[in-house]
Amino acid sequence: MIIYLCNLLNIEKEPIRILVTGAAGNIGYAIAPMIARGLMLGPDQPMILHLLDIEPASKSLEALKMELQDSAFPLLQGVIATTNVAEACKDVNIAILIGGFARKEGMERKDVMSKNVAIYKAQASALERYASEDCKVLVVANPANTNALIFKEFAPSIPEENITCLTRLDHNRAQARLAEKLGVPVSSVKKVIIWGNHSSTQYPDTNHATVSTKTGDRPVKELVADQNWLRNEFISEVQERGAAIISARKQSSALSAASAACDHIHDWFLGTPKGTWVSMGVCSDGSYGIPTGLVYSFPVICEKGSWKIVQGLSVDEFSREKMDDSARELAEEKALAYSSLSV
Amino acid sequence: MAKEPVRVLVTGAAGQIGYALVPMIARGIMLGADQPVILHMLDIPPAAEALNGVKMELIDAAFPLLKGVVATTDAIEGCTGVNVAVMVGGFPRKEGMERKDVMSKNVSIYKSQAAALEKHAAPNCKVLVVANPANTNALILKEFAPSIPEKNISCLTRLDHNRALGQISERLSVPVSDVKNVIIWGNHSSSQYPDVNHAKVQTSAGEKPVRELVKNDEYLDGEFISTVQQRGAAIIKARKLSSALSAASSACDHIRDWVLGTPEGTFVSMGVYSDGSYNVPSGLIYSFPVTCRNGEWSIVQGLPIDEVSRKKMDLTAEELKEEKDLAYSCLS
């Protein structure tokens, strides 16, 4: 009855502007139709897509715009495909930063870092200047946490709680791996945590993870026969999954990265499901002894458009060491990034 | 109470249309947000590693609706128990190849696909052929799967249909969801006939004919038609690859409307087995305007056809007849 009345009254929402940088690449190609179908913000939220990439990619970018038009998506009320940063950033409410400098063979970490620092410094200025005041930012391009940190440093008027990086992909991978091991539906696995850096030092933590069963939620630790597996193979499998995908596909993850980015934004805006939490890379407030001044992945719950770190979870010695390891790597990346800036 | 999962087969799943399509299926875009699915992904042995990579990513995406993934190079395993089959796999034309060569390769592919589906798919399996030459591949499939009801075999012209909607929406600067009832007649090729004679736009003053609002018959009878006909080539020119995202999305629309029904007052375009409607010869897979209800399509009858349309509809039927003859010559 209510749906009938709403249709009758034609209640329509104002479109939300969503920016995707690096849009002409593989992740952009995967994410654009997902956004246009309402997977990011719900099936009744219209949007206008802002697609940004660099000049050499302008033809591919135009082709993406053409294909989006050809798809006749009801929710997609406009597409701005541009190589002009100001035009791309104008009034956007959400920014998905996929564009970055990918590491090439023979490149040193320092070289990749230096190129990305320059990119994210410029992105930060542009978004700070042109985006909507409440703009929420998700950094996907690697090194995701440090790119997000640089971004934050150079967009001081963007509230730091609006700047995040993607570790939802790792979170989803961890959830899926557990589901596979236990032979249960993936949606019955809850409360995994990805701590730290979106890199091979991330810590996939199952200490608080549960599985919904007929007899209620039971700890994963109880249901997995092999505790050793949880502390070793499971962790390295999740950490190295990105490399495993590259090995099989000869290209890095696009479909799953795009999908995880949609989940990240969806839960941020529309709230996390009851009875579980998700992982997001956010500006550390010192929780769990993690130094401030880093973008670090924590377990969070989202409500009314804001995330909050889940507090009070017990952290054993094993976890402590891994969490600190990842924090140390992030501090090193930060130092490297800053040294690139002073050059 | 959760629904029983539906098994959906995608052939050529390791390719770029497959890569765009499978997450859409897994998110419920094809069959609805409450319909669990099990994906069957089939490709040829050289693509086995890439196919496994796609399976890995589908698992990594933790899709709540995705209850299983079968990734295989074995046609029988691929086809077993499937309720929906989206045939994306085929032999693409390479530089220097003659039409006859491409046709010959695809005829043998679709002949063997037909046999596998007929034997192993679930009863009432709905088939959508995407791979080109789509109409003729679908016809071959039909001929070699005689126990699959002919109404269950279709080919994709929804992409052309959606492209036509997109062009009108651009031209009039109106939301694309306000445009409806364009028709794509005929072959999914450059001889297709995008017909706006019955198309409408939702305005504040009710539904108006597209011709009335565009006020430019020269455009609608000329540039509009060739733009839609040649859009595929335009995409290839810009991307250096053929359409994937839009083809995948249209395939989802085609199946969704077929299974869940078209909205009241709206028709869509599907390549279906001709029953002689509109004087289109039977024995061809031809794109018609259809409505869908209770899992079945029916051709919209009684639309007036003017002389210009008649000619174009006949032209594309002729091309399909030639393709059919070529296909049959490859078989012998």
UniProtKB/TrEMBL annotation, chain A:
<feature type="active site" description="Proton acceptor">
    <location>
        <position position="198"/>
    </location>
</feature>
<comment type="similarity">
    <text>Belongs to the LDH/MDH superfamily. MDH type 2 family.</text>
</comment>
<dbReference type="GO" id="GO:0006108">
    <property type="term" value="P:malate metabolic process"/>
</dbReference>
<dbReference type="InterPro" id="IPR010945">
    <property type="entry name" value="Malate_DH_type2"/>
</dbReference>
<dbReference type="GO" id="GO:0006099">
    <property type="term" value="P:tricarboxylic acid cycle"/>
</dbReference>
<feature type="binding site">
    <location>
        <position position="53"/>
    </location>
    <ligand>
        <name>NAD(+)</name>
    </ligand>
</feature>
<feature type="binding site">
    <location>
        <position position="173"/>
    </location>
    <ligand>
        <name>substrate</name>
    </ligand>
</feature>
<feature type="binding site">
    <location>
        <position position="116"/>
    </location>
    <ligand>
        <name>NAD(+)</name>
    </ligand>
</feature>
<keyword id="KW-0520">NAD</keyword>
<feature type="binding site">
    <location>
        <begin position="22"/>
        <end position="28"/>
    </location>
    <ligand>
        <name>NAD(+)</name>
    </ligand>
</feature>
<feature type="binding site">
    <location>
        <begin position="140"/>
        <end position="142"/>
    </location>
    <ligand>
        <name>NAD(+)</name>
    </ligand>
</feature>
<feature type="domain" description="Lactate/malate dehydrogenase C-terminal">
    <location>
        <begin position="167"/>
        <end position="335"/>
    </location>
</feature>
<dbReference type="InterPro" id="IPR022383">
    <property type="entry name" value="Lactate/malate_DH_C"/>
</dbReference>
<dbReference type="InterPro" id="IPR015955">
    <property type="entry name" value="Lactate_DH/Glyco_Ohase_4_C"/>
</dbReference>
<dbReference type="InterPro" id="IPR036291">
    <property type="entry name" value="NAD(P)-bd_dom_sf"/>
</dbReference>
<dbReference type="InterPro" id="IPR001252">
    <property type="entry name" value="Malate_DH_AS"/>
</dbReference>
<feature type="binding site">
    <location>
        <position position="103"/>
    </location>
    <ligand>
        <name>substrate</name>
    </ligand>
</feature>
<keyword id="KW-0560">Oxidoreductase</keyword>
<feature type="binding site">
    <location>
        <position position="109"/>
    </location>
    <ligand>
        <name>substrate</name>
    </ligand>
</feature>
<dbReference type="Pfam" id="PF02866">
    <property type="entry name" value="Ldh_1_C"/>
</dbReference>
<protein>
    <recommendedName>
        <fullName>Malate dehydrogenase</fullName>
        <ecNumber>1.1.1.37</ecNumber>
    </recommendedName>
</protein>
<dbReference type="GO" id="GO:0030060">
    <property type="term" value="F:L-malate dehydrogenase (NAD+) activity"/>
</dbReference>
UniProtKB/TrEMBL annotation, chain B:
<dbReference type="GO" id="GO:0030060">
    <property type="term" value="F:L-malate dehydrogenase (NAD+) activity"/>
</dbReference>
<keyword id="KW-0816">Tricarboxylic acid cycle</keyword>
<feature type="binding site">
    <location>
        <position position="163"/>
    </location>
    <ligand>
        <name>substrate</name>
    </ligand>
</feature>
<feature type="binding site">
    <location>
        <position position="106"/>
    </location>
    <ligand>
        <name>NAD(+)</name>
    </ligand>
</feature>
<dbReference type="InterPro" id="IPR022383">
    <property type="entry name" value="Lactate/malate_DH_C"/>
</dbReference>
<feature type="binding site">
    <location>
        <position position="43"/>
    </location>
    <ligand>
        <name>NAD(+)</name>
    </ligand>
</feature>
<feature type="active site" description="Proton acceptor">
    <location>
        <position position="188"/>
    </location>
</feature>
<dbReference type="InterPro" id="IPR001236">
    <property type="entry name" value="Lactate/malate_DH_N"/>
</dbReference>
<feature type="binding site">
    <location>
        <begin position="12"/>
        <end position="18"/>
    </location>
    <ligand>
        <name>NAD(+)</name>
    </ligand>
</feature>
<dbReference type="InterPro" id="IPR036291">
    <property type="entry name" value="NAD(P)-bd_dom_sf"/>
</dbReference>
<dbReference type="GO" id="GO:0006099">
    <property type="term" value="P:tricarboxylic acid cycle"/>
</dbReference>
<keyword id="KW-0560">Oxidoreductase</keyword>
<comment type="similarity">
    <text>Belongs to the LDH/MDH superfamily. MDH type 2 family.</text>
</comment>
<feature type="binding site">
    <location>
        <begin position="130"/>
        <end position="132"/>
    </location>
    <ligand>
        <name>NAD(+)</name>
    </ligand>
</feature>
<dbReference type="InterPro" id="IPR010945">
    <property type="entry name" value="Malate_DH_type2"/>
</dbReference>
<protein>
    <recommendedName>
        <fullName>Malate dehydrogenase</fullName>
        <ecNumber>1.1.1.37</ecNumber>
    </recommendedName>
</protein>
<feature type="binding site">
    <location>
        <position position="99"/>
    </location>
    <ligand>
        <name>substrate</name>
    </ligand>
</feature>
<feature type="binding site">
    <location>
        <position position="132"/>
    </location>
    <ligand>
        <name>substrate</name>
    </ligand>
</feature>
<feature type="binding site">
    <location>
        <position position="93"/>
    </location>
    <ligand>
        <name>substrate</name>
    </ligand>
</feature>
<keyword id="KW-0520">NAD</keyword>
<dbReference type="InterPro" id="IPR001557">
    <property type="entry name" value="L-lactate/malate_DH"/>
</dbReference>
<feature type="domain" description="Lactate/malate dehydrogenase N-terminal">
    <location>
        <begin position="6"/>
        <end position="153"/>
    </location>
</feature>
